[in-house]
Write a structure and sequence with these properties.
The protein is α/β, with parallel strands linked by helices and about 400 residues long. The protein has 2 domains: about 5-45, no CATH class; about 50-380, Aldolase class I (TIM Barrel), CATH 3.20.20. It has 14 helices and 9 strands. It has helices at about 5-20, 25-35, 35-50, 95-105, 125-135, 140-155, 165-175, 205-215, 235-250, 280-290, 310-315, 340-350, 360-365, 375-380; strands at about 55-65, 110-115, 155-160, 180, 220-230, 255-260, 300, 320-325, 355. Strands 1, 2, 3, 4, 5, 6, 7, 8 and 9 form a 9-stranded parallel β-sheet that branches. Strand 4 (about 180), helix 8 and strand 5 form a beta-alpha-beta unit. Helix 1 (about 5-20) packs across helix 10 (about 280-290), helix 2 packs across helix 9 (about 235-250) and helix 3 crosses helix 10. The protein is globular. The relative contact order is 0.16.
Length: about 400
Amino acid sequence: MAEIATPCRVDTALERGREERGLSRADALCLMEAGPLDALIEAAAAVRNRVKGRSVSYSKKVFIPLTHLCRDYCGYCTFRADPQAGVQPYMLPDEVLRVAEAGRRAGCKEALFSLGDQPERVFPEAREFLRKLGFDRTLEYLAAMCELVLDRTGLLPHSNPGLMGADDLRRLQETNVSAGLMLESSSARLLRAGGPHWKAPDKVPSLRIRTIETAGRLSMAFTTGMLIGIGETPEERVDTLLTIQAIHEQYGHVQELIVQPFRAKPDIRMAQAPEPSTEELERTIAVARLIFGGEMNIQSPPNLLAKDYPDLLKAGINDWGGISPVTKDFINPEAAWPQISALSARSAGQGFVLRERLAIYPEFSTRPQFVNARLQPHVRRLQGNDGYARERCETC
């Protein structure tokens, strides 16, 4: 460890990162553990500026929580729920459409579907509800609701449903311009009894990696990322980033990397766990930028850093993620999204121009393999000549 911490090694790693010559695991760990924060974020910002310039993007979305039922019991989650008497297990089609239409009227262009992982495998209430609607599996119902929203409102679906196989991804690919699955961590250690992924069978890293790889083989624009502060070590943070990098190098389909901090909440098993500091978050973002280089879109949610969120621009992000003028963040309901006007003003205060994008990034939407024939007219209707969202469109 003393060798990693020597100034010479830090300087060498910073130079390699700044010049985008590729960071080894030792380089990345050196910077994660011993890199001076000011020098680290300065290098990361320089790499970002060289490729992305001084624009920061976001997607105007409506959040559709199709079901809160989930078979996993992660130690940090307030989104999931077990069946409750008098509580409907899933949103009905007319409820889904009502929320989507409210989003369309507010100028949203993305319909973000979030839901628990495979609840029908453990809850008879979920199986029975799906059966009455004519479905066997949650992912089948999700695909039908994505099709309904696309056809009736023109919003572009982006789904985050958990683990998916090739057939599920192919079906979603017919209506989703992109999809997502957070790797969260590549560490199987976190599955141990009492750990954050204890009693969460869908958080086995190899299974999540398989889903991300399958999306790559299908040329599906994909969002993934890491959750920091859930008990992982610096080495495990680096390994998670390098795992995602290796997948992206093979398939080229990761359109966005999210670096998200854990936030403690009263009603979770990890209510007393310490949250990662702003410095830890900035350091992790900066190392991610130096690992992935300037081309990758790196995002960190502004609502999870409250008033200090503009500082994340200094660390190397170029995207704020989805922001909704209609619905709350159901994953972090205590953390309100900033108003888009405030987001624009505070980004400008750091020297950045806020740009609205679609659920698929411009550099992916112009490549035919990532947008099928059915989706292309929907994308063109919402997209300007530069690939970002149109400022105005007649049917939005």
